[in-house]
Specification:
By secondary structure, this protein is mostly helical. It is built from 16 helices and no strands.
């Protein structure tokens, strides 16, 4: 009979149970059901938002104008998410889980209300930035809560539950957005999500009981706004470098953005209590650093399908926008399926699932080089599903292994940094794909043959980045990276 879950970690018991099978009944019980719903709701608000807004965007532009700035609604949301994610670990170490999550939910609700009432695109963009801060904060804080509120042996089941929410958002997001556009109004769609965020904030404040967690030593001081501003500026410059590719604009923006981020990382290395990231965040000789490099590289390498996939499928194969959208949804479906399938795996098998999953992700990028230019659509969807299966099979165990090998004082920073670095990878990947596409002569009104050349360039250019991810994965799982359990 499995021991009853406890509200705090016992390292000796943790190590003993690490290789035992963990059933769902150990997660869905009186102690952990509330925290499980909390992390799932936090992820849901962020995951569903992007697809719902994308579905409603044509109606939004009709109502308030500003069609040249549509891309900024995505960029500002992502920037807000990255900044909030970077600050989340510090916030938890300073104030605990409850207050930062409540603040993030309130910011998300405020952003939704501003977007709902926006008379102009400028006001709408301000609301989207606040939604990004709130949504990105909720996601990073949910991953941190999963790390500090649950014993390590339950993390795979918790991550499987979160993956279900990601998969559900891929299908429900467009349906919900379409419902409000056709049956009500896009403004009601934002009010619908504002109501959910307000409910979440109220539940956090008055309703939920959280188990005691083995928090690292609380930090003092104020949030390092200067470093966050540098991070914001560096990501913004790099993202803008890929939006309109030209000489000398693009290389100048890349150099300045990279320089700003280098200053940010240098200042991070000099900091102590106010650090936003784990120590040696991108050092391949560190297990935490290699995990973050792997996450960054694979996030960058797989952005080709998200950024240009629908446009290329429509131009080359004549698919409808809906069909192209559901090809992208195959990633989420594969992720959800595999995450649930492997969620009961013992900790001793983590390296095998990580290696197998990352190899599948690499294979999906290689497969896109052939399938997107040549088809058929079913083959593209198959490789998209392989990407999702790879991430779903590996991600839970990447988090579990990285947490186990991290310094105890960096567990919260690592848990918040991993999803945030992933979003940073998406921003870098979008910029990289913009440069590659424009170098290949991309044009929205170009011929099918031009689109095929663009597809080959984008996915072939992404392959070396995926190879870097595989190398970082090998550094992460090699026996030399293993330390004694904490």
């Amino acid at each position: 009979m499995q021991p009853k879950p406890k509200a705090h970690w016992d390292p000796d018991m943790e190590d003993h149970l690490g290789t035992a099978h963990v059933g769902w009944f150990e997660v869905v019980n009186r102690t952990y059901a509330g925290p499980l719903v909390l992390v799932c709701l936090g992820v849901w608000l962020h995951a569903a938002d992007g697809l719902i807004v994308a579905t409603m965007m044509p109606e939004i532009v009709k109502a308030i104008g500003g069609d040249p700035y549509v891309a900024w609604s995505v960029l500002l949301y992502e920037l807000g998410s990255i900044i909030a994610g970077a600050a989340s670990a510090f916030a938890v170490l300073r104030w605990g889980v409850r207050k930062p999550m409540m603040a993030a939910a309130i910011l998300f609700a405020l952003g939704c209300l501003i977007s709902a009432a926006a008379p102009l695109m400028a006001v709408f963009l301000a609301g989207r930035f606040l939604q990004g801060v709130g949504g990105g904060g909720l996601t990073a804080l949910s991953f941190i809560a999963a790390a500090v509120l649950f014993p390590s042996r339950l993390s795979a089941r918790v991550m499987a539950a979160i993956s279900v929410l990601w998969g559900a958002s891929a299908f429900l997001g467009p349906l919900i957005g379409g419902f409000f556009v056709q049956q009500s109004s896009w403004r009601m769609g934002f009010l619908f999500f504002a109501a959910q965020a307000i409910f979440l904030a109220g539940w956090i404040l008055f309703g939920i009981r959280l188990p005691k967690s083995p928090m690292s030593k609380p930090v003092r001081g104020v949030l390092p706004f200067g470093r966050l501003l540098l991070l914001l500026l560096g990501v913004l410059l790099i993202a803008c470098s890929g939006s309109v590719v030209s000489l000398p604009r693009t290389p100048i923006l890349l150099l300045i953005g990279g320089g700003v981020l280098s200053v940010f990382l240098w200042l991070e290395a000099q900091s102590t209590e106010t650090r936003l990231l784990p120590k040696q965040p991108f050092n391949l000789r560190s297990p935490v650093g290699s995990a973050m490099v792997m996450n960054l590289a694979m996030s960058m390498a797989t952005m080709g399908l998200s950024t240009y996939g629908p446009l290329l499928m429509i131009a080359i194969h004549g698919t409808t926008a809906i069909a192209a959208g559901y090809v992208l949804a195959a990633v989420a479906l594969g992720w959800t399926f595999s995450a649930i399938l492997v969620s009961g795996a013992p900790e001793t098998h983590d390296p095998y699932y990580i290696a197998g999953g990352m190899v599948l992700v690499f294979a999906s990028v290689g497969g896109m080089i052939f399938s997107v230019p040549n088809g058929p659509i079913g083959l593209i969807a198959g490789f998209a599903a392989i990407e999702g299966i790879g991430f779903g099979a590996a991600w839970t165990f990447v988090i579990r292994r990285a947490r186990r090998l991290a310094n105890p004082e960096d567990v919260e920073r690592l848990s918040g940094a991993l999803p945030t670095v992933g979003r940073f990878g998406y921003a870098l990947g979008a910029a990289m794909n913009g440069i590659l596409a424009n170098a290949a002569g991309f044009s929205a009104g170009g011929s099918a043959e031009q689109a095929r050349a663009v597809a080959r360039t984008i996915f072939t250019g992404s392959l070396p980045v995926a190879l870097l991810g595989l190398f970082a994965m090998a550094c992460f799982i090699l026996p030399g990276s293993v330390s004694k359990p904490r």
